[in-house]
Write a structure and sequence with these properties.
Length: 833
């Protein structure tokens, strides 16, 4: 299969001699290093990878396991390993006792809430480990692994192993082994073997990359006797050489140089038969060499040249340029001998994750390795990936902010983030000053009353889990199922719980409430089964105690965490929510699935009825097989933010941020208690269908205590900008306790969306929905004339500032209609009685 199509044609002379040239060091050590030779067209492209054992499949730029927007390091494809396992290949032809480098490019999938480590092995002995690999974002490249080893024999097994927690995937590309001695600085893909055997004319097109190198012009890989312009001379190392045609270049940043030391660059070069290219070599802007190149001819050795420069910085941009029109130069076996320094620790951000409501601000600390500050001054440039969602205070017109770190000064600086509108952004490091970037900053702007409700927004720290909790102040830290503080019970929602050890306090500012309305605070809780202490848990809002649990006890075994609901009526739009522990001895409380919903006194308690307790899962929003607080489920399920998709690709849900998604056939159920038999109740919920994925219908059913309430009803998408469908069902249960159950039975790949489920005592009059449409370029807001007493209010920014809107209101048919002219200020609107 051709893998780099379309290709330009190379028109140099001497193609007739292809196929007779020797390679003095033998074939490439790694076969199919760039995962180009096989590809399963069927989504999501699972399948074997030629010459590798254990790969999960191969992806192209569209993914889904390779992250869209991240450049493919080499060629058009990458291999991937989903979950834990090993990807391996038998290698031969090495020289025992010589030092080699194993190099490859790696990344992790931006999805699904899991974490993944990468381990490199030779003959099952661990050589290196890359823990908790984070995905590259903001157009940043894959990371480079460079692992030295010295084989005891001429052959062995190379293994790239993955160790995953949850659903996580690692991506690999450009795998090479190259012989290099001590005292040499790392040059990625220095012998150009990472691409595998050349195809066609060998020219890389459409922005296709050569692993480790930034390229411009017409460039590619030639394998003598197979493809490309290398038609004379003995290849200096393994199979491949690089070539540059016309005004073209290859460049790479050499890192960790000792300032003031002499750097020696050695490279092999040649020209195709009949060509006379000119090769220029630079370090930064300083020219090191510029030579006219003649073909060596036959099977003669390539020319080898050594140039030197004095390192004025810890990094140097090494560039090879061919400067003559219509001429081609061949390049191979690049080595850099230099005094190097220990690589600086990566740029660190604290916190790594933020959850904010619109209008809130947060300060982030940026820290550099103190040794980096001692060495030289550094200038960092940062920007928000979407300033319309989260902006950086003081940013320039291009959205960038600059942080200066003078030599010998402080290693830490701060910057401020302003939350603007609902969405998720990352803070990109546009210029890292030659330093590595570790965890960057993810900013999640939410409309939900409680941020980071399931304590998933930042990973549980290593060890006992002590550390900050995104979106919250205080607390001890986070634990996963392995504890040690979570040592009993079943985690109620997703993977993590908050830990409050001893006398402690966990708090968050809540905004966006309606003063005088009735709300329910819900949370799940447990106690550590350890250490003979006693602990109480009190809950406050706006300084007032809502409730207290005296003597929190472990639920034990794999039982569900306890659940508590507390009713309160806020005096204003916001206040401080606090969980306060008081301990005697060594005791610990565990918290999860904290949410606030607006509910009236006649509402029956349904846990997580608006699906806000799970927070915002990464990726497409899947949760299975993890738990979702309050519900038991089958099939494919998860949570999406309304309007942001991908499953919520139309419609506006009725409450806060999140809606439940049920893809394909499945069930959602919760046992409801404390009903009065033979009394009337009203079930109310918002629902919709994804506007996607072929023919057939989205169908669902509802039952209570096995009595059908809705049977096989078809659901059509409401459309972009329209409110979800609203269903109101009155029924009379004959039992005090029963299972409320939603069942989906779609035709084909369809997804049912559900939000804001309420079970209300008596007959309930449904709320009035504000409908939104566009006519003649103007915004039209409408609601039924029969809904008396409602007034239209607006605000320029959430969560507060609501006031009567001044729009002219007319009656059109059976509706009140307010028209907002095109070009008017952006506002938020609501109806209020």
């Amino acid at each position: 299969m051709t893998t780099r199509s379309p290709l330009f044609r190379w028109t140099g002379l001497g193609l007739a001699v292809l196929g007779i040239l020797p390679c003095v060091h033998g074939a490439s050590f790694i076969k199919n290093p760039s995962f180009e030779s096989n590809y399963n067209d069927a989504f999501p492209h699972y399948g074997p990878a030629d010459d590798w054992s254990g790969a999960s499949g191969v992806n192209e730029a569209k993914g889904p396991f390779h992250n869209g927007g991240t450049p493919i390091p080499d060629g058009r494809r990458v291999g991937f390993k989903q979950g834990s396992g090993e990807v391996s290949q038998d290698v031969s032809g090495l020289l025992p006792g010589k030092q080699y480098w194993i190099q490859f490019q790696y990344d992790s999938r931006r999805c699904c809430g899991g974490t993944i480590d990468i381990v490199v092995k030779w003959n099952d002995a661990e050589l290196a480990k890359f823990p908790n690999v984070k995905p590259a974002d903001g157009g940043n490249p894959y990371r480079l692994a460079n692992v030295p080893f010295t084989p005891e024999s001429d052959s062995g097994k190379l293994t790239i192993a993955t160790v995953a927690s949850g659903d996580a995937t690692a991506n690999f590309d450009g795998v090479t082994i190259i012989q290099r001695n001590a005292g040499q600085a790392v040059v990625a893909n220095s012998s150009f073997e990472a691409s595998g055997a050349a195809v066609g004319d060998g020219i890389f097109v459409d922005g296709t990359g050569i692993a480790g190198w930034r390229a411009s012009g017409t460039y590619g890989i030639s394998t003598p006797g197979v493809a490309g312009p290398a038609n004379n001379g003995a290849v200096p190392d393994q199979d491949n050489v690089a070539f540059l045609t016309g005004n073209s270049s290859l460049s790479q940043t050499i890192r960790n140089l000792k300032i003031g030391s002499v750097v020696k660059v050695t490279y092999a070069y040649n020209a195709p038969t009949g060509q006379s290219p000119r090769l220029q070599v630079k370090a930064g802007t300083a020219a090191l060499a510029e030579d006219d190149v003649a073909p060596v001819g036959g099977a003669n050795a390539y020319r080898v040249k050594t140039v030197t420069f004095t390192a004025s910085d810890t990094v140097a941009e090494l560039t090879f340029t061919q400067t003559k029109a219509s001429q081609t130069v061949l390049l191979d076996d690049i080595k850099v001998e230099a005094q190097t320094i220990v690589e600086f620790k990566p740029i660190a951000f604290e916190p790594n994750g933020l959850e904010l409501a619109p209008g809130l601000k947060a300060t982030v600390k940026v820290s550099l390795d103190p040794e980096a500050i001692k060495t030289k001054a550094h200038t960092l440039r940062l920007r928000s990936s979407n300033p319309a969602v989260a902006a950086l205070t003081g940013a320039e017109a291009d959205g960038l902010i600059t942080l200066e770190f003078p030599k010998g000064g402080s290693e830490s600086k701060t910057f401020e983030i302003l939350a603007v509108a609902r969405g998720v952004v990352r803070i990109d490091v546009a210029d890292a000053a030659g330093l590595r970037v570790g965890d960057d900053v993810s900013v999640n702007i939410v409309m939900s009353f409680v941020r980071n409700s399931s304590f998933e927004s930042n990973p549980a720290p290593a060890g006992i889990g002590a550390g900050p909790i995104a979106g919250w102040s205080g607390g001890t830290g986070l634990n996963k199922a392995a504890g040690p503080f979570h040592d009993n019970g079943e985690i109620p929602d997703r993977d993590q719980v908050a830990v409050l050890q001893g006398n402690n306090r966990l708090s968050q500012d809540i905004a966006g409430l309606t003063a005088g309305a009735t709300y329910r605070l819900e949370f799940r809780y447990n106690a550590r089964n350890c250490c003979n202490g006693k602990i109480d848990l009190a809950v406050k809002f706006d300084g007032k105690e809502l409730g207290k649990i005296t003597g929190v006890t472990p639920v034990m075994d794999a039982h569900p965490y306890s659940v508590r609901t507390l009713t309160f009526v806020p005096a204003s739009a916001g206040g401080l929510l606090e969980f306060i522990t008081t301990a005697q001895g060594d005791a610990t409380v565990l918290l999860d699935a904290v949410s606030i919903v607006r509910r009236d006194p006649n509402d029956v308690i349904l846990i997580n009825s608006s699906f806000e307790a799970s927070g915002n899962p990464v990726g497409v929003g899947y949760l299975q097989p993890k738990k979702m607080s309050g519900w038991s489920q089958t099939g494919a399920y998860g949570v999406n933010i309304t309007g942001l998709g991908p499953f919520t690709d139309n419609g506006i849900a009725s409450d806060q941020d999140r809606v439940l998604l049920m893809q394909g056939p499945g069930t959602l159920a919760q046992t409801v208690t404390d009903l009065t038999p033979n009394q009337k109740y009203t079930l109310v919920y918002s629902y919709n269908a994804r506007n996607c994925c072929g023919g057939g219908a989205t169908r669902y059913s509802v039952s209570f205590a096995d009595v059908p309430l809705v049977e096989d009803e078809e659901v059509s998408p409401v459309g972009v900008g329209e409110a979800f469908h609203l269903k109101t069902l009155s029924f009379t249960p004959s039992v005090a306790e029963g299972e409320l159950k939603f069942t989906t039975s779609p035709e084909g790949d369809h997804t049912f969306l559900l939000d804001d489920i309420r079970l209300i005592k008596g007959v309930f009059e449904p709320p009035v929905a504000l409908r939104v449409s566009i006519a003649g370029g103007n915004l039209k807001l409408s609601w039924p004339v029969g809904a008396s007493g409602f007034k239209l209010e607006s605000t320029l920014a959430l969560p507060g500032g609501w006031a009567a809107d001044g729009a002219s209101i007319t009656v059109e048919g059976t509706d009140h209609v307010a028209t907002v002219a095109a070009g008017a200020k952006s506002k938020f609107y609501r109806l209020r009685k």
